[in-house]
């Protein structure tokens, strides 16, 4: 059984790297870029679902509960943020990320969950103290967003007022991730999975490459 789990995870990780390579090449080729943008929300949904499925096979129901709560909370914060500019700053979403509710793409809440899970998983491989894990995960999430933001604007994921990314956006990322990570401690969850580490790093490298070459 354990061997089967390892094999399933290995296949899933290989699938993620394949999608990453194809996606990177597609975004860098002018003839394929529009197709890549069209596929973006579906790619995020499929790859994220594969990762989440593999993790849930080993985790307990409390992780699913955490993910649902995190999805709902982050989506509500995004909807309020888009409307008021209070949380992240003045911004609006484009059409690249697909179907929207309250002017926020539905995939956004899911992506928050997956990015935070990756950051938390990496942090738990470094330390087991939940407070230190929260600090590490929040820092990783902010670094991820710092790489993501300029690329997201170029690709039309979203736009910031006056094309300036406000510092409060990064404070919000830190605070939201910090509280969400402490919540894993409250639920006694020790989130440490290789596939989450790989998924976080794959996305980070993807956006670094696009930041450098598009």
Can you describe this structure?
The chain is mostly helical and 214 residues long. It is 78% helix and 5% strand. It is built from seven helices and four strands; from the N terminus they run αααβββααβαα. A two-stranded antiparallel ribbon has the order 1-4. A hairpin with a 2-residue loop joins strand 2 and strand 3. The longest helix has 29 residues. The termini are far apart. The mean pLDDT is 94.
How many whole angstroms does the radius of gyration measure?
Answer: 17 Å
- How many strands, what sense, and barrel or not for the largest sheet? 2 strands, antiparallel
Helix and strand element order: HHHEEEHHEHH
Number of helices: 7
Strand percentage lies at: under 5%
Shape assignment: globular
**Head-to-tail CA distance between termini:** 44 Å
Taking strands numbered 1, 2, ... along the chain, how are they ordered across the largest sheet?
1-4
Unreliable stretches, pLDDT < 50, 5 or more residues? none
Which percent bin holds the helix content?
over 70%
Class of secondary structure makeup: mainly alpha
The overall pLDDT average reads: 94
Give me the count of strands: 4
Give descriptors for this structure.
5% strand, 214 residues, mainly alpha, two-stranded antiparallel ribbon, two-stranded antiparallel sheet
